[in-house]
Amino acid sequence: MISEARLNEILLEEINRAKSVGIDLKPINHKIKIANLRSCYGSNHWSEGHKDVINISKYYLEAPEEEIRTVICHEVCHSTRESNGHDVKWRYAIRKMRSAYNYLNADYHLHEHPYGSDGRSKLPHTNLAYRPRKTADPAAVNHKAYKYKLTCGGCGKEYFYTRMCSVIELAKSSSSDIFCPKCKGTWFTVENL
User: Fold this and answer.
1) CATH code, 56
2) Total number of domains in the chain
3) Measured between alpha carbons, how far is 77 from 74 in angstroms, rounded to an integer?
4) Sheet holding 188-192: strands in order across?
5) CA spacing 20 to 30 A to 111: which of 60, 63, 99, 130?
6) For residue 7, what are the CA distances in angstroms to 3, 23, 95, 109, 124?
7) Where in the sequence is the domain holding 27, given as residue range(s)?
8) Does residue 184 lie in a domain region?
9) Which pTM does this prediction carry?
């Protein structure tokens, strides 16, 4: 599990990287907040101290450091001046970072998860699916930490889970309450790893 001190080091590195490629950032609090986020890996919000605060889900801290770095990069780019959500200015900042530092899928919408159409209600209190991003070498992804693999029957996209959760249970019961964000398919196979 990554330490809070290491998270703050990565945050400072990402802020400096963004500035080095010419991204104009609003002030950012230099301390990451570990939060009880259940529906996303990270978030960025304005605080009363006139600085953006970056949160990382406590359920995501066991992910590999390179994946956490990508989430932090994603959230730092939300601090681009005059940016709002995943707008044109945010996408421009992400593309600059991806081009300069070879980030894999930092522009992927990290807030989409293969849960139900009503989102949060499908999340048990400790479930946040960690899904490895595409890598140049798919064999390089370490699947040993995961116990379940959910595969979409429509497009073949794979989702990995570290524990039994309602998403796995719904997929096993062939429920249409979960869907694939990629193809909107509702048919999944579940494999115990």
Assistant:
1) 3.30.2010.10
2) 2
3) 5
4) 158-161, 148-152, 188-192
5) 99
6) 6, 21, 22, 21, 25
7) 4-101
8) yes
9) 0.58
